[in-house]
Specification:
heterotrimer; A mainly alpha (217); B mainly alpha (227); C alpha/beta (242); A: 217 residues; mainly alpha; MetI-like fold; flat; B: 227 residues; 0% strand; MetI-like (chain B); ABC transporter permease (chain B)
Chain lengths: 217, 227, 242
C-alpha cells in the first residue's frame, strides 16, 4: 500500500487553489448580494426591510450543509444536472455569505451616528449622496476588521462544498484517504493548509480592530 | 419544468426525523454545556494563568478558530482510532464539537473579562474578598452577562454546525436526511423539510436561551434591557 | 420689511410631552434673532422645525417662501436656502476641513472642483482658519471644528443661518473665537436665528431676543433691552444667567 508522499502533497496544493477560488467567488458574490441586503435592511420601505430581515433569518437559521444540498438537488431537478459542482457550491456559499455580510455591514452603517445623516441632509444632499459620500466611507472603516474576520469563516466553510463532490482541500483529503487510508497524517496536513490560509487573515483582522480602537480613543 | 413535488413520500419517515432532531438537540446541549464550562476555564487560564499555560491555550484557540470544523471532526474521529481506542461516531462527534466550541467560548469570554474595569477588581480587594470570590462575583458573572448575546449566537451556530457530524455518520438530523433522501429519491423535498426543521430549531434554541437569560440575569430583567 | 422666516401658532409634541405650544414669531431679512430659555423650553425644537428636521402637528412655518408644513415641501430647495450649525459640530470625520466644505457645493450644486476649492478656501479664511485647510476634524480644537462647520454652511450661500447652541460644548476661551465669527456674519447682513446661552452676545448682537418658556414665546424684546425685561420670569432667568 502506498504511503503519503509528494504526489499527494501536490494534489492537496492544487485543491487548495480551488479552496481559494471558491472563497473568492463566495466573497465577491456574497459581498454584492450582502450589500444589497444591508441597504434593504436600513431602507425606509417597510416591506423591503421585512423581506431582507426574513432572508437573513432564514440564511442564518439553516445549516450551510443543508443549503448546499438544497441548491445542488434543486438545480438538478430544474434540469441543470450537468453543471459543474463549482456552480452549486459557489451559489450556496454566496447565499450563505450574503446573509452574514449583509448583517455585519448593516451594523457598521448603523454605527455611524445619526447626526452625520442629518448634517448631510441639511447641506441639501440627496439620500443617495448622504449614503455614498458621508455614511459609507465612515462605515467602511468600521467594517474592514469584521469583514476580514468573516473571510476566515468563508474559507473554512468552503470545506462543506466537499459534500456535493466539489474537489477542494477537504474533498482532496478524503479522496487521498480513500486510496491510502492514513487519515491522521492526511487530515493534519489538510488542517495545516487551512491554517496557513486563515491565520494571516485572522491576525490581519485583529490588527485592524486594534487600530480602529486606538483611533477612536 | 415537469418536476412533481411529493412531500407525502416523506411522511412514513417521521419517526426517524424525530429521532434525528432528538440526537441533534442532545449533541448540541452536551456540547454547549461542556463548551461553556471548558471555555470559561480556558478564558481564566488565558487571562490569569502562568505564562506557559497562556501560550498553550492561546495556540489551541488559534488552531481551532483557523481550521474547519469538518476537518476537526475527521481528525477526532480518526485520531481516536489511531490511539487504539474505539468509540462510536456519536461520541466522536460530541468530542469534536466540544473541542471546537470551547475555543470559541474562550475567545468570547476573554473579551468579556477584558471589558471588566480594573477599578472593579480593586473595589473587590478593598472589600476583603479573596481571589476566588473576586473572580466569581466581580469578574466572571458580569463578564458572562455582558457577552451572553454573543455566546447565544455562537451556540445557535453550534447547533446548526452539528449537521456536519453527519459526515462521520453520527445519526443526527442531517445524517437521517441523507439516508432518507437516498431511500426515497426525494432529495430536494427532504432537504427543504430538514432546512425548515433546523430553522424552527434555531428559533426555539434562541428563545430558550432568551428565557434562560431572563431567569439568570435578574438585573437585566429588572432594567428591561434587551438580551 | 417682508419676513424671511415666519412661524404661526406652531404646535409640536414628543409623545405626551408638549414641546411647542402655539409659537409665533417672524424674522426679517438681515435680522438676528436669539432664542433663549431654560433647557426643555422648546427653543432647540423650534429651530429644528424651521429646517424641517422635525414635523409639526399644527400651525404654519414659512421659510424663504417654502411652506414647511405642506406635504409638497421641496426639502432640497429648503436646505439650499437654509444653513444650520449644530452644537456637536457634526463635521465629516473622514474628510479634511477643506473637503468638508467642498463636498456639498460639488455634489449638490455641481460646482467645478477648482471653483469649489477656491470657494472653500474663501470660507475658511472668513472664519480665520485658512491655514487649517488640510487638517482632519480630529486634529482641530472644538472651537476650530465649530468654525469649520460654520464655513461649511456658508459655502452653500444660504439666505438664513440657524445656530443650535453652537458654543455650549466649548470651553469659555474657545467660545469667544466662535462668537466673533458669528458677530462678523451678523454685521455682514446675514439673517440669523440662534439658540444660545450667551446673554452678553444676545444683548450685543441680536436685534430681537425671544424668551421661550413652557413651549411658548414668553417675552420678545430688543437685545439691548435685555436688562429691562417686563416679565418676572425673564428677569429671574437673566438674573441667574449673569
Amino acid at each position: 500500500m502506498p504511503t503519503f508522499g509528494p504526489q499527494h502533497l501536490w494534489f492537496l496544493l492544487h485543491a487548495a487553489g480551488w479552496t481559494l477560488a471558491l472563497s473568492a467567488i463566495a466573497f465577491l458574490g456574497g459581498g454584492l448580494l450582502g450589500f444589497g441586503v444591508a441597504l434593504a435592511r436600513i431602507s425606509r420601505n417597510r416591506v423591503l426591510r421585512g423581506l431582507a430581515s426574513a432572508y437573513v433569518q432564514v440564511v442564518q437559521g439553516t445549516p450551510l450543509l443543508i443549503l448546499l444540498f438544497m441548491i445542488y438537488f434543486g438545480l438538478a431537478i430544474a434540469g441543470f444536472d450537468q453543471l459543474p459542482a463549482l456552480i452549486a457550491a459557489g451559489a450556496g456559499l454566496t447565499i450563505y455569505a450574503s446573509g452574514f455580510l449583509g448583517e455585519i455591514w448593516r451594523g457598521c452603517i448603523e454605527a455611524v451616528p445619526k447626526t452625520q445623516w442629518e448634517a448631510a441632509e441639511c447641506l441639501a444632499m440627496s439620500p443617495w449622496q448622504r449614503l455614498t459620500k458621508v455614511v459609507l466611507p465612515q462605515a467602511m472603516r468600521i467594517a474592514t476588521a469584521p469583514t476580514v474576520g468573516f473571510l476566515v469563516q468563508i474559507v473554512k466553510n468552503t470545506s462543506l462544498a466537499s459534500v456535493i463532490g466539489f474537489v477542494e482541500l477537504s474533498q482532496a483529503g478524503k479522496l487521498i484517504n480513500n486510496s491510502i487510508f492514513q487519515p491522521f497524517v492526511i487530515f493534519v496536513t489538510v488542517a495545516i493548509f487551512y491554517f496557513v490560509i486563515c491565520y494571516p487573515l485572522s491576525a490581519w483582522s485583529r490588527g485592524l480592530e486594534r487600530k480602529l480602537n486606538v483611533g477612536r480613543r | 419544468m415537469t418536476y412533481q413535488f411529493d412531500f407525502a413520500a416523506l411522511l412514513p419517515y417521521w419517526r426517524e426525523f424525530a429521532a434525528g432532531v432528538w440526537l441533534t438537540l442532545q449533541l448540541s446541549a452536551v456540547a454547549t454545556v461542556l463548551g461553556f464550562v471548558g471555555g470559561a476555564l480556558c478564558a481564566i487560564a488565558r487571562a490569569d494563568g502562568p505564562p506557559w499555560l497562556k501560550r498553550v491555550v492561546g495556540a489551541y484557540v488559534e488552531v481551532i478558530r483557523n481550521t474547519p470544523l469538518l476537518v476537526q471532526i475527521f481528525l477526532v474521529y480518526f485520531g481516536i482510532a489511531v490511539l487504539g481506542l474505539r468509540v462510536d461516531a456519536t461520541m466522536a462527534a460530541v468530542l469534536a464539537l466540544v473541542v471546537n466550541v470551547v475555543a470559541y467560548t474562550c475567545e468570547i469570554m476573554r473579551a468579556g473579562i477584558e471589558s471588566i474595569h480594573k477599578a472593579q477588581i480593586e473595589a473587590g480587594e478593598c472589600l476583603g474578598l479573596n481571589r476566588r470570590q473576586i473572580y466569581w462575583h466581580v469578574v466572571l458573572r458580569p463578564a458572562i452577562e455582558r457577552v451572553y448575546p454573543a455566546l447565544v449566537s455562537q451556540y445557535v451556530l453550534l447547533m446548526l454546525a452539528s449537521s456536519i457530524c453527519s459526515q462521520i455518520s453520527a445519526e443526527e438530523l442531517t445524517a437521517v436526511a441523507n439516508r432518507i433522501q437516498s431511500d426515497t429519491f426525494r432529495s430536494f423535498e427532504t432537504y427543504i423539510v430538514v432546512g425548515l426543521v433546523y430553522l424552527a430549531l434555531s428559533f426555539v434554541v434562541r428563545w430558550a436561551f432568551w428565557g434562560f437569560g431572563l431567569l439568570v440575569f435578574t438585573r437585566r430583567r429588572k432594567l428591561g434591557t434587551a438580551l | 420689511m417682508s419676513a424671511v422666516v415666519k412661524l404661526a401658532n406652531v404646535h409640536k409634541s414628543f409623545g405626551p410631552l408638549k414641546v411647542l405650544d402655539g409659537v409665533s414669531f417672524e424674522v426679517g431679512r438681515g435680522e438676528v434673532v436669539a432664542l433663549i430659555g431654560q433647557s426643555g423650553s422648546g427653543k432647540s425644537t423650534a429651530l429644528r422645525c424651521i429646517n424641517a428636521l422635525e414635523t409639526i402637528e399644527e400651525g404654519a412655518i414659512e421659510v424663504c417662501g417654502h411652506a414647511i408644513h405642506e406635504p409638497t415641501l421641496d426639502r432640497r430647495a429648503l436646505r439650499l436656502a437654509v444653513g444650520i450649525v449644530f452644537q456637536s459640530y457634526n463635521l465629516f470625520p473622514h474628510l479634511t476641513a477643506l473637503q468638508n466644505i467642498m463636498l456639498a457645493p460639488t455634489c449638490v450644486k455641481g460646482v467645478k472642483r477648482r471653483e469649489a476649492r477656491e470657494l472653500a478656501q474663501d470660507c475658511l479664511a472668513r472664519v480665520g482658519l485658512a491655514e487649517k485647510a488640510e487638517h482632519y476634524p480630529e486634529q482641530l480644537s472644538g472651537g476650530q471644528q465649530q468654525r469649520v462647520a460654520i464655513a461649511r454652511s456658508l459655502a452653500m450661500q444660504p439666505q438664513v443661518m440657524l445656530f443650535d447652541e453652537v458654543t455650549s460644548a466649548l470651553d469659555p476661551q474657545l467660545t469667544g473665537e466662535v462668537l466673533k465669527v458669528m458677530e462678523d456674519l451678523a454685521r455682514g447682513g446675514m439673517t440669523m436665528i440662534l439658540v444660545t446661552h450667551e446673554m452678553g452676545f444676545a444683548r450685543r448682537v441680536a436685534g430681537t431676543v425671544i424668551y421661550m418658556r413652557q413651549g411658548r414665546v414668553w417675552e420678545a424684546l430688543p437685545g439691548r433691552d435685555l436688562d429691562h425685561p417686563r416679565t418676572p420670569e425673564l428677569r429671574d432667568f437673566v438674573g441667574s444667567g449673569l
